[in-house]
Amino acid sequence: MGEKSIIAEDQGEESVKSLWNTPFIFLVLISFITAMSFNMIYVIISKYAMGVTSSLTIAGFVAGVFSIAALIIRPFAGMTVDMVNKKTLCIIANVVIGVSVLGYAIFQNIPMLFFFRIVHGFAFGVSSTVNIALVAKYIPRNRIGEGLGYFGLGQVVAQVISPPMGVYIVDAYGFQLLFIVIALLSFIGAALLTLLRYPKSEKTEPKGKTKVTIHSLFAKEVMVFAAIGGMFSFGNGIVSSFLLLLGQERSIANISLFFSVGALVLFILRLFVGRIVDRKGLTLVVNVSLVVTAVSMFLIGVAPVLSLLLVAAVLKSIGQGAGQISLQTACIKRVDPSRVGVATSTFYIGADIGQGVGPMIGGAISASFGYTALFVVCAALMLISMIFFNLHQRKENTINKKSASIFNNA
């Protein structure tokens, strides 16, 4: 008997006919497990750092250095994903995540906490990149949008249930047990991945020496899509950072319902938005998404009551959910299958920058002009982004038509 696996024979990208094949379902489950571990630690790391140090500034740096590390590793992660066995790389990333989280529990001092946060950020940057590249191998090429939409369902569920679960474990049993639980989830994800049969036909060894070039680190053909995707993350970063403060200033009770309603809408949206993306095309979906997101930002900026904020939550989830899935799908489809890794990392670089820069710019604007101005400016930036996106799409269509004309005349 051969190696035990969840499927009996090799399955390459070209042979995938059905979306709901066994490896795809298996990877959705693994994604849910790993997302649970990430979201449980995301909400409590600042509190844990404050227990180690009395400085709020240092605690903030401990929390933020994770994202910086993930951003730095992204280009190299994308290049590596396209060079090596994606399954093996995903296993290694999950193991390193588990080890780094155990490091939080064992070494309770700031220098080591910084070290393991950086290692964790590096591993997460690799993991989130290789996850998409790996699952794309088991999705029919003409159903990428639908497949990515379903793939994200587990992550959405994890975003809803894991933060309160993490807080409960900390309050009832302490940080150390939480870190052990998170590490075990990462190790379980890695163990389950060993059961996945990976296509033996894929060439995982590059010919000759692989040079580190701009082309190997970034997919320039999808940079505009990454930038537009980064704008959605820009808005998300602003909402995450300033909505609670806005609610406090306006005396709006139960404002946390904004996030619960948004998560519910996003979950429902992912059940069908991928099919819309695959059938209606990129330009229409992104344009509608940017307009809807702009309206949601404007409503947040002027909302005096919770009910209007909940309407904004619904619109934000529709706009951001559909927009980011469509752009990520376009990034994968735009490149050769051998460069899915670098295309994915390029898209996430845009998201990382947007998520990181948003709170910085938002803090400066809100400090000088208030929260209404902040969200109105964010809405305006969404509409400006739409103009640039359409100019790019028009240019691309013109180039494609000229190329087709030359080909036909030849």
From TrEMBL:
The chain crosses the membrane at residues 24-45, 57-77, 89-107, 113-136, 148-169, 175-196, 217-246, 252-272, 284-315, 369-391. PROSITE patterns: MFS. It is a multi-pass membrane protein. Residues 23-397 form the Major facilitator superfamily (MFS) profile domain. InterPro entries: MFS, MFS_dom, MFS_Exporter, MFS_trans_sf. Keywords: Membrane, Transmembrane, Transmembrane helix, Transport. It is found in: Cell membrane. This is MFS transporter. It comes from Evansella alkalicola.
